[in-house]
Amino acid sequence: xxxxxxxxxxxxxxxxxxxxxxxxxxxxxxxxxxxxxxxxxxxxxxxxxxxxxxxxxxxxxxxxxxxxxxxxxxxxxxxxxxxxxxxxxxxxxxxxxxxxxxxxxxxxxxxxxxxxxxxxxxxxxxxxxxxxxxxxxxxxxxxxxxxxxxxxxxxxxxxxxxxxxxxxxxxxxxxxxxxxxxxxxxxxxxxxxxxxxxxxxxxxxxxxxxxxxxxxxxxxxxxxxxxxxxxxxxxxxxxxxxxxxxxxxxxxxxxxxxxxxxxxxxxxxxxxxxxxxxxxxxxxxxxxxxxxxxxxxxxxxxxxxxxxxxxxxxxxxxx
Amino acid sequence: xxxxxxxxxxxxxxxxxxxxxxxxxxxxxxxxxxxxxxxxxxxxxxxxxxxxxxxxxxxxxxxxxxxxxxxxxxxxxxxxxxxxxxxxxxxxxxxxxxxxxxxxxxxxxxxxxxxxxxxxxxxxxxxx
Lengths: 319, 128
Known about the structure:
The complex is a heterodimer of chains A (about 325) and B (about 130). Chain A is an alpha/beta fold and about 325 residues long. Chain A has two domains: about 220 residues, 3-Layer(aba) Sandwich (Rossmann fold); about 55 residues. Helices cover about 30% and strands about 25% of the residues of chain A. The radius of gyration of chain A is 22 Å and the shape is globular. Chain B is mostly helical and about 130 residues long. Chain B folds into two domains: about 70 residues, Winged helix-like DNA-binding domain superfamily/Winged helix DNA-binding domain (Arc Repressor Mutant, subunit A, Orthogonal Bundle), CATH 1.10.10; about 40 residues. In chain B, about 55% of the residues lie in helices and about 5% in strands. At the A-B interface, helix 6, helix 8 and helix 10 of A face helix 2, helix 3 and helix 4 of B. Chain A: It comes from Cellulosimicrobium arenosum. Chain A: Keywords: ATP-binding, Nucleotide-binding, Transport. Chain A: One of its GO terms (molecular function) is ATP hydrolysis activity.
């Protein structure tokens, strides 16, 4: 493992191996009486992927991010982070501390001194820091390195954190709802910068967001957590194929529902559209199309709403 | 873009096939890189790479080391042949099934086909 030998200060370090992560039966409790923030979470983050971390408020996303970045250790269970085949406990582990970058909404910046001071701090901390990329991103987000983050708008401060996260080029970078306060053009500039830099410099990115429609296509894998439990962790493509929508003559549509769970049902005269939970095989798809039905996909957002619905308290239609 | 029911990589592959079929992308012409595809359509680069892998398997694209992806020689002919093969099963049969459902008699369909003008009938690529 050549990456671990200390890089000389003059030559740029060789590209790092992307980090993966594994959680086994992880429980995190903040107080003895409280509900667990994570309650037996088991999941794998594959090295080199952009993984979406989806969950409602309080689902445990931020706790999970803090574990990966070694900001805290679990109450029980194991957390392992590292290059493929070299996973280690990240807690109080200098190796994983310098190679894992967590960007939280607060930005993790020195608020009362120039932005440049924060950049200098990360440049010294992160072995693969790219100062040119940082400068380009600050330019793109119209952030002056002379300004104090405390004096920036919430959106600008978030964008500053996003820029630090990308310029760190850490083998594992976690963006925990980094988009908050960023306007739509800034968010899309961030997604574009993320994709372009990730394609050139493959690494592992974990991105948590509520704006699922906006980001779902960025993901190779998706993790959905709810009330501290992992509901699913699988390729984004598999998530998308968990649902199907059918449109056509009502009586024909109903024939294809065939015992599946109906997420939504709309009817206009003789035409009905149903959204179904449950995969549709090639044969069923062909049969439905052949019968004259329109077969469509279900947005990940709709599946997420269904999976994390609280019986009795939320309405199915609520988004 | 790419809002269909199929996985996104299949929709990307179909887009590139259509461009080759229509002659918009010529043989030996370079196609977008995975990075360009990813940033243009805001999709995961692995999704774009999966579409390319499929098209390389099909002989539509080939990789030039260090340069990128190019349309393979003979790709258009191969696509025309395979699309002709599947035309009846995948395009015409569903349309005829729909006609049955709507109670449109075969004679009306035949009349429509025979009466249809052929303004853009190709002169070189005559169907077999």
